[in-house]
Design brief:
This protein is α+β, with helices and mostly antiparallel strands. It is built from one helix and twelve strands; from the N terminus they run E-E-E-E-E-E-E-E-E-E-E-E-H. The radius of gyration is 15 Å and the shape is globular.
Length: about 160
């Protein structure tokens, strides 16, 4: 797959294939908290939301079925991907002293890397970096997680500008 550019347009994040105008997917958040969202891959709709009010881990659903869960690692940050409550070995996280969000395999190899520029709103550049086949849904899940974690970073940065 080619690289992807994600732009915030008309209250949604639109994912384009490379620098073309070919839309590969969309991410539509419910509100500015940027937790719950609908992910559109082609004509397919997926839902990302907190598993429950008590459990803050985030699940990705297709209809009522949970496809996988982002289980947060409170010590190291990032999230491990679980399917049927079993650790897949895959994770989505940042990398020490390196910008961006990475989707990594069981051996820690980067498969997808998403990073933002400094514009407001930012343009997100996403590249497939590994040899393993990666689905468009995993690309959008990585972009979703990047936006989700970047929202808190931008909030802290905006506070530092005020203080």
């Amino acid at each position: 797959m080619a690289g992807f550019l994600t732009r915030f347009e008309n209250e949604q994040y639109v994912v384009y294939k490379g620098d073309t105008q070919e839309v590969e997917g969309r991410i539509v958040f419910d509100n500015e908290a940027r937790v719950e969202a609908d992910l559109y891959v082609g004509s397919e709709k997926y839902r990302v939301e907190s598993q429950s009010a008590e459990d803050k881990d985030i699940v990705l659903r297709k209809d009522a079925d949970v496809l996988f869960k982002f289980r947060f690692d409170p010590l190291w940050g990032g999230a491990e991907l679980f399917i049927n409550n079993e650790d897949t070995g895959y994770e989505v996280s940042g990398k020490l002293f390196m910008p961006g969000t990475r989707f990594m395999d069981k051996d820690g190899n980067e498969l997808v890397v998403a990073g933002s520029d400094n514009s407001t709103p930012p343009v997100i550049v996403t590249d497939i970096t590994g040899d393993e086949e990666v689905t468009l849904l995993m690309v959008l899940a990585t972009i979703y997680y990047h936006i989700y974690t970047s929202a808190s970073e931008r909030f802290v940065a905006s506070l530092s500008n005020v203080l």
